[in-house]
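lol ok so funny story. i was supposed to be doing the assay writeup but got distracted and ended up predicting the structure for this chain instead. priorities right. anyway since i did it might as well share w the group, maybe its usefull for someone
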Amino acid sequence: MLNENLIDCRLGIRWVTVCVLLALFALPALAQQSMSFNAFKRYTSKVYDIRYTEPKGFTDMKTVAYWRLDAGWRGTVSLHSFVFQSNDGNCLLMYPHFIESLFTCAPPSIEHKITTEIKALLGRTDSDGRTLAGDIDFDKYVEIASAEEARRCFNADSVYVAHLPLREAYEGRYEHCIGVYVGKKDRPRLYFKLLLTKEGMMHEKRYFRELCNSVSYRNDNWVYNEEMDKKARIDIVYKDHYKK
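and the output, tada:
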């Protein structure tokens, strides 16, 4: 029997259907979001009790990032519904895709997700882009925050910070990538990317601090409410999408 806070498999399947439909609008035209950041933060606040605010010193680029991490046609992708650029232009802050903000019946561990992304970036994939078996030097790339730091920053149980090995500069100028993977028991996991120029790396801590200040899980006693979710999808998500 699943914990009462977890969404059951049937609801998860319905959610996947909803998200795929939204993604079909978002992915072909990367210059257009499938929903506004304002709608996203209202929805996640109401349904998942997660606080989002615009990061200070950043501008919403109003774009969707669909970033293939390897060369395979069915390989690993990094999906992000919202991209913010720092006012100095040296950092892109990518927020989770709407799909990845939802529960699944048996989500892979954060360690598995990080390992998959690192393997893809290192080219450890087959001709179809599927990651190959074998270990990586996890500690070489990843730092794990203490429980105190995770709670202070995102009110989370765990925070992993990975320095991801880019094969080439993103958009020709962002040479460094930091993945931030945030988790809390019985809550959606949150995956972020910080893309940095060489100059931006000198201000890495400042950018991370702005991310920290703009996102957090709220109440520890949150319980998922399916009826509230259905209503919020109509009142917030669909209305925001179809008004465009």
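The chain has seven helices and eleven strands. The first strand starts at residue 50 and ends at 52.
back to the writeup now i swear
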